[in-house]
Structure formats: C-alpha cells, structure tokens
C-alpha cells in the first residue's frame, strides 16, 4: 500500500475591504504600501489575531478614513492571490458594504489620499480591477441597472 504524501498547507492571510457609497460615489483610498502602492481601492486591511472580520472592517474604516459605519453587510469574499496575482499567498478578502456612514473623511494609516468617484470616473484613475468590478456590481444592484 502506498502512502499519500502530506502537502504543506499554504499560509493564508485574511483581510477586509469596505464599500462606502454616498450620492452615487464610492470612497477609494490611494494605497501607500505594496502590493499595488499608488492604486486606488476600497479601504481595508488585514484581520488581526482575535478579531472578527466585522470588527476588522470597522477598525480599518476608522484608521484609513476617520469614518464610522453603523451597519455592515457582507458583499463577497475573494481570494486576491487567485483574482489579481498580486499576492504570493492566499489572501482571502471579505468585502463589506457600509451603511449609515458618519464623520468627515480624511486619509490616515497607510492611505495616502481619498477620492469619492463614480463608476464612470474610476477607469480614469489607477483603480484595482477587483475594486472596479465590485463597484460596478454594487451600482447595478443599488441603481437597478445591468
């Protein structure tokens, strides 16, 4: 009888991303660190030990934008290593839609700048492909377009 080799489990990283939308515009942060430094994406980051994804999303939103949200809804989970090839390890990203957003947006933590953009404006900037795809899905769902 042959034995089946046991393969090492690849290291996995868990992160969160938060969709904030006001008056048809999405809040994007300019990334200040690699990977994808200089690109615009939804605010977010890694889940810290002992945190739930929801707690991490609320923390990252506050750290990167100075905003709070009263309610989050899970939108989608992606493996960015598979989707973008920007990561060597599996990077599972839980994307949340934020509602009842409060505060005055200002860049913080590793966010260099903030922009409120429509889906139509996003292709004019360096926006990550997954961000643009998700923004289009949210706009279609919320605005009743296809």
UniProtKB/TrEMBL annotation:
It holds the Pfam family NUDIX. Transmembrane segments: none annotated. Residues 11-140 form the Nudix hydrolase domain. The keyword Hydrolase applies. Keywords: Hydrolase. One of its GO terms (molecular function) is hydrolase activity. InterPro entries: Nudix_hydrolase (IPR020476), NUDIX_hydrolase-like_dom_sf (IPR015797), NUDIX_hydrolase_dom (IPR000086). The keyword Lyase does not apply. It comes from the Bacteria. This is NUDIX hydrolase.
């Amino acid at each position: 009888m042959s034995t089946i080799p046991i393969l090492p489990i690849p290291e996995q990283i868990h992160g969160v991303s938060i969709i904030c939308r006001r008056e048809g515009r999405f809040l994007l942060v300019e990334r200040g660190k690699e990977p994808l430094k200089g690109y615009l994406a939804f605010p977010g980051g890694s889940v810290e030990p002992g945190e739930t994804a929801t707690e991490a999303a609320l923390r990252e939103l506050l750290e990167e934008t100075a905003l709070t949200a009263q309610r989050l809804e899970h939108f989608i989970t992606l493996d960015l290593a598979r989707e973008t090839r920007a990561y060597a390890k599996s990077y599972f990203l839980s994307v949340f839609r934020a509602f009842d957003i409060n505060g005055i947006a200002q860049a913080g933590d590793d966010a260099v700048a903030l922009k409120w953009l429509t889906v139509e404006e996003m292709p004019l900037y360096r926006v990550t492909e997954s961000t643009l795809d998700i923004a289009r899905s949210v706009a279609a769902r919320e605005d009743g377009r296809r």
